[in-house]
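Listing S7. Sequence submitted for prediction.
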Amino acid sequence: MSSGLGFYVTKEIASVLLPGVVVLTELTVLAAKVAQVDIGSLWKSLGSITGAGLVLLVILGVSGAYVIGYLTRELGFMTLLMTDKLLDRFPTRRRTVSPSDWVLVRRFFGDRFTDDLVTLHPVLRHLDRELNERESQPDVAVPPVQGSGVRKGDVTHSTTVFTYNKNWLRQYAPLLGIEHMEIEVNILLSTLSPVGLLAGNILVASNVPLWLKIAFVPITGLICYAILKSAIRVKRAEPWAALLHLGFDMAMRTAQSMYPTAITTGGANS
């Protein structure tokens, strides 16, 4: 319970509250520039607030930052979904058919080990069934995702299997957990709005040269594109990593149980 709560708090602070503070600050500066209000005077006025007024200001600021940060993250996930669908329309994303994640797991661990893994985790049984159905229909192409090891449309994207794998690792093998990948995706998507608002602040600034304003528009676009590409790569790699780490968990437990026998029989030196 405590580890799950700690993970949730960490994720909310890193991907909601902190980006919300940044966005709220950028919105305040942007609004002040548009209204032609002196920024220095504004901060000085806020700094002069004390007592109950200061407490109320902090509460309002934190609450506002959390709400804005939450909306910012949701906007990032919506942008991710639309970009993902858009990229799938390019022929280079669907020109070849690659083996599924489950095939790769069987190749990596071997059929005997994988069968034992399925025996311990019956929720994985349908992967073989769906794999057999897939192989019986070779004309149905499943597009690969280049560089991630995870194929869109693959059975490992099943919400049930992915959730089971992730929860098992979190509960029984936390060192093999993939929470860092989930946090990374959330943080990446939460940076899109701050980057965009930074560009807006630069465009409305009167003391920034025109050539720099023009140059910053494509730079901002490239930065946002790089962020989205990274988020898509990590997001699609999550189910594959959870499945692979589930196999690692069983392999490590098996090796640990065999060590005393191996040492006693001289297997460690063979």
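Caption to Listing S7: primary sequence and predicted structure tokens for the chain studied. The two ends are 44 Å apart (CA to CA). The chain has one domain: 2-262.
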